[in-house]
Amino acid sequence: MTVIDEQPVASLSRTASGAEVPTAWERARALLRLRDPLVGWVATVLVTVLAFVMRLWHLGTPREFQFDETYYAKDAWSLLHFGYARNYADNANEQILGGHTTGSFQSSPEMVVHPEVGKWLIALGEKAFGMDPFGWRISSAVVGALMILVMIRLARRMTGSTLIGVVAGLLLSFDGLQFVLSRLALLDIFVAFFTLCAVSCAVADRDWFRERLARRLEGPATGWGPRVLWRPWLLASGLFWGLAVGTKWTAMYPLAAFGVLVFVWSAGARRSFGVRMPLLKGALADGVPAFVHLVVVAALVYTVSWTGWLMHAHTYEQALSSTQYTTYAGQGHCEKTTYVADNPDTDKRWPTATEPDAHGLGEVEQSLRSLWYYHQDVWTFHTHFLNCATHVYASSPAGWLLLNRPVGVAATTDIKPGDQGCTAPQGSDCIKQVILLGTPMLWWGGVVALLYAVAMWLGGRDWRFGVAVVGVASTWLPWFLYDDRPIFSYYAIVTLPFLVLALALAIGKLIGREREPSPRRTAGVVLSGAYLVLVILNFAWFWPIYTNALLTHASWLDRIWFQRWI
Length: 566
Hints:
- The protein is mainly alpha-helical and about 575 residues long.
- The chain contains 20 helices and nine strands.
- It has helices at about 25-30, 35-55, 70-80, 90-95, 115-130, 135-160, 160-175, 175-180, 190-215, 230-245, 250-270, 280-305, 305-310, 315-320, 360-385, 440-460, 465-475, 495-510, 520-545, 555-560, and strands spanning about 1-5, 5-10, 85-90, 105-110, 325, 335-340, 405-415, 430-435, 550.
- The radius of gyration is 26 Å and the shape is globular.
- The N and C termini lie far apart (about 65 Å).
């Protein structure tokens, strides 16, 4: 028996070596006291700075709009200067790359199909450095590097090891997909960052909540146990979830999954302190406050992120509310956008378009209703408009984790010998390319680690592996609902941190907890170190096709390992 504050408390069990397992009180009170906080932060900052410098290298090249940068960079400039996204001239790209933005944008609003948080962040870079490739990519580079920082701190918290945290950070730093997306003005790096931040805060709340219960209890809990209505880490998680959903709607899936996981963790904490029927009692004691902290706060943040749109709702009501989606019958025909002007007998305008302009709070209510109708149109676009469309780089999510189909975002081909430094033999040529491809050794190893995580979570009942499993499942599996429309493998960037977490946790198990030298620990360190080095070397091999470097055709083919990668 263990005595705490003169109260006898039964220990849970003993380890295989006979040592007594600490009580819930002892475990909870020790959660936030990790070793060497100074060393931990110094190591974190060093790896983050390394990652940032890598991502800054020749950030402004190639000097062109790469892939969907052509949408988001211009939308960001519109938000910055007009408060809402405007349509642009047909030759806008050429004008902007020539250093001219005047005359590139029209007065009519654009029908954008993604929320605005990520585009506002891109706009910050354009505000600081101008409307050029470096300006519209710098925010991605900053966020990509900060993502490394959050990864290190999350892995360190979950393992209690600065070494494992640094390994997780290095793995993420040297992934090709994360690296290239950190150098592009696309939205996906932002939603991945905010999702990782939200999950990290939820994990911190798990520790904080258990420690708070331990502080408030003097013995076994009775009845419902202590009420904990204010949970600051969970509030921070809700803020980040709002920013994630405010970048792309797909963040709602992991929000729902981790919301359930937070509830299960809270119920488990109460159970460990002696509360009977913890799921039922926790549903009220913890479930309702958690819902407010996560879902309600996220919804408020999401709505606020549309402030620019709401301030110009009248513009959208008149210009875009006439949009309707008409399904054309017959095989192979997709839905297309038509307008009231093309169908004079059919009025599909939003109800707010024909209402008199309101004032004060009535105007706020009217604008919010217009935003709701706009969301209905965007939902129609995502769920119907692209169903029959095709794209050369589209791929099935079934193969994303195995890197079945990378996405080429820029390419200069047929560079003749002697041009731009090309040293290819006569009869051949050189190539420059930027490709969205993960580091194969990391992703393939991550799949193995994920299978191990499933076994450790379900069989070993180790909650930490559950974070990795739930993270992968909630960010990857929902895409199977949309595999009848063009979707792309780089969407799995949101899944990547959880694969890295699975790897970090598996490496932690491989090395073991003992700090004294032993054959087992030595073998674990050697194997783990060799794997890390292999990932870094693999990343270095693909560096030229991550950075638009000049390659001979033969050297390029050496890096295109499969026919599906072309």
